[in-house]
Description:
- The complex is a heterodimer.
- Chain A is an alpha/beta fold.
- Chain A folds into 2 domains: about 5-95, HUPs (Rossmann fold, 3-Layer(aba) Sandwich); about 110-230, 3-Layer(aba) Sandwich (Rossmann fold).
- Chain A contains 8 helices and 9 strands.
- Chain A has a 9-stranded mixed beta sheet, with helices on both faces.
- In chain A, strand 1, helix 1 (about 20-25) and strand 2 (about 30-35) form a beta-alpha-beta unit.
- Chain B has one domain (about 40-465): Amino acid/polyamine transporter I (Up-down Bundle).
- Helices cover about 70% and strands about 0% of the residues of chain B.
- Chain B has 16 helices and 3 strands.
- A 3-stranded antiparallel beta sheet of chain B has the order 1-2-3, with no helix packed on it.
- In chain B, helix 3 packs across helix 8 and helix 3 runs antiparallel to helix 10.
- The termini of chain B are close together.
- Classes of the chains: A alpha/beta, B mainly alpha.
- At the A-B interface, helix 2, strand 3 and helix 3 of A face strand 3 and helix 12 of B.
- Strand 3 of chain A pairs parallel with strand 3 of chain B.
Amino acid sequence: MTRVLVPVKVLEGGTVSPGLMSLLGTVDVTVLGYHVLPEQTPPDQARFQYEDRAVDALEDLTQEFRAAGGAADYRLVFTHDREKTIERVADDVNARAFAVSGITGDVDRLLVSVTGDVAADRILGFVEEVVGDREIDVTLFAAVKEADADGAADELEVKAERLRGSGIAVETQVAVGAPYKKLLDTVPGHDAVVVGEKAPSLRSLVFGDEAEKMAAASVGPVLVVRHDEALDG
Amino acid sequence: MSEEPTGTNIEGDSPKAEEVIETDEATVTEESELERTLGLTGGLAIGIGTMIGAGIFVFPGLAGAEVGTAATASFAVGGVIALLVALPTSELATAMPKSGGGYYFISRGLGTLAGTIVGLSLWLGLVFATAFYLVGLGYYALDGLAEIGVTVGASPGIIVSALAVVFGVAFTILNITGTENAAKLQNGIVALLLSMLVAFLGFGLLEAFGFVDADTPASEAADVWEVVPVLSVAALVFTSYLGFAQVATVAGEMKKPGRNLPLAMIGSVVIVTFLYVITIFVATDVFDRQALDDAGETAMVEIGRQLLGTPGALIIILGGLLATMSSANASILSTSRAIYGVSKDALLPQWASRVNLKYGTPHVALGMAGGPVVVLAATRQVQLLAEVASFLHLIMYGLICVALIAIRRDEPDWYDPDFRVPGGNAIPAVGALASFGLIGFMDRLSIAVGLVVIAATAGWYFYYAGDVNLRGAL
């Protein structure tokens, strides 16, 4: 079963919007409650003081995810390094994607970016699973250089056909220009964004800043489909 | 065999302990995970960053003034003793990669009394060491002010005390309120220092062997190549080798502890020993004993000036400021971890390891580190502070070696170190003898102060935690 990791800043009022919970109702969820400590503080020391509160909050969250549909569990980590923690736990639970929480109501339309991504198959497969047989429409998006615009439209159409084959209503959109900016321009009218994690060398970009920025700029949640060495090479 | 600690302290608290699983990347407890985030570079930066401030920038003048070029032998002896202890410490740390370092191994290997003495002495030893680094920092700051033409009316001694106190208070406050990660900064400072030193020492060596000539004065006062003076100086400068124990205090946060802990501890000792010996060689080649004695704590500045003119002096002042700052700051951080290790085991009140809600920092422990540091730094007693710090650490080092032998003699089931010291018990036995033996070469007053501290910690044990049993409890 596909599993999605949902990192939550558990002791700093981090929470998950109801829209994201119901969107992830078709997959299994691991809620990753984390607390980042300054280097002056050994993680162990903070644990004694905060563990009970954090566990309470995580149990409530996990319960809500279960109520939304899928199987759910949680992990609690005290860390100095948020990115390392997310990556380690995502590997550990074999998560196919992780979610950057954002505010949204019911999700009716997903924006799915497949710009320059070798892992398009994995992104499409993930979208199929998440959507399931629900009435959620998809906009497939790719940003390209001017010269490649025609070919890109055709390629995107092929990918759209695959999703239509699974009963999803799909529109396509090709934009010419900087991928990140163009993607943000396209966000209005969509309730959540799905992107692929880039090649490993750029992983930290998507991982830390870009996905967070995207969530902040688009207001809604962002699902980042993870790179997989074994499948993507 | 019971692996749970037992007993309660005078307040009725018992040690906090539970089953945990150690992996390369995290410590997994029943309810949560503790991420390991420090890599080999971070570990080396803590070790080297703590050590070079003292060995390179404060001691060359003091040590060279006593015995001249023979101080190279003193530093070599210190390095060998440090290495003899770093090896057993590595074995124990890979078997018990926990916060608290030496305290943890000794309390588990030798029991609660030895543990309490070492745990509290580690805290106080680090306090003495930090005060020593701050006084060094004060001297460098004073030289820096003089170099840029600022003169202050008060006597130089008062200014050094005042500067040391101001820096001590500032570091404590920064550590309590600062949530920015200073680790990257520390790594950068250490890298910068190392490259400055390599360039500077390289030039110094060329000069020493006559490839270039910086017109250094001819040496008159003879070197003292005699065993007792050389060992006395070794006892004095041993403070330059305390940093590898600081690496052990962050063992709980080290990635792949089985590999990185031994590499960071042994590697940092080897690297600094090499640098110290060359520095002393260059320093005593440029100046004879009399000149070094006149220049005092900041003799390196004058050596820089002699070799490279005013730019040389400025480079050394900048290096000295950075190095003593990084030593002081890293030691304050280790101190709060040492206090945490002891307080977790109910040997100190548990409020000592409270974490501040606003900043997420252990403000009580940092205060217990910074407060006494400031008082001691104001005394400006460089040699006394350094020797008491060394005394308290040497007691711990000797006991670490003894603890290794004790644990090996009756290996508990949980004892499964990734790194084993080769050659049976020979290295820990020699390490213990050398550590205790070096104490004998210290100044009487330093030994007396050290013994008072030890007696006070033992008294605390009988008063506060006589009923707690930690031996053999993982």
